[in-house]
Amino acid sequence: MKAWYRLQRDALLTLVRWIVGGRAAFDAPLPLPCVVFANHSSHLDTLILLAALPPHQREHVRPVAGADYWDATPARRYVAHRLLRVVLIDRVAGGAQALEPLHAALAAGDSLIVFPEGTRGTQALPAAFKSGLYHLAQAHPGVALVPAYLHNLYRTWPKGAPVPLPLLCRVHFGAPLTPDAGEAKEGFLARMRDAVCALARD
Fold it and tell me: What pLDDT was estimated at residue 11?
């Protein structure tokens, strides 16, 4: 990333932390490469997660988001492509095709931030996870899976709210996980969701 874009990104992340906080807690050092997966309830989720990462690791972590939203306006495209290096997916097409950019990013050595619910929720705990995280884990068994929970974000900028509220938020990163040998998709997704929910209680 060019220095000018890095400065803009860090200024944006600093502004977000100034408004809503974002103190981070880590149960274990964050391994790279990895897939960070978290609950999703606010437009600020991606920014808070990036802001919580140590600066030297932030350079190697790319959020995953829908192209239908981030390519909709010039301003969003600028933030997504220039500042955050978002891996854009085609949520309309869905299926294996939508995961191809994620596979390419992991193969290149990047880490990812994903929201397995697929869309923003309105409750403190995440909804059921969709299958994308399972397919990523199967295709990249050497990549660590790191659960994360965003405290209070569902109240800070809920769906339909015009602006975020200045409520203190924090991020809890759990210990890395791996798939169990022969683990079925449904059991894997339930276990990953349970890992995020467990962080909500801490």
Answer: 96
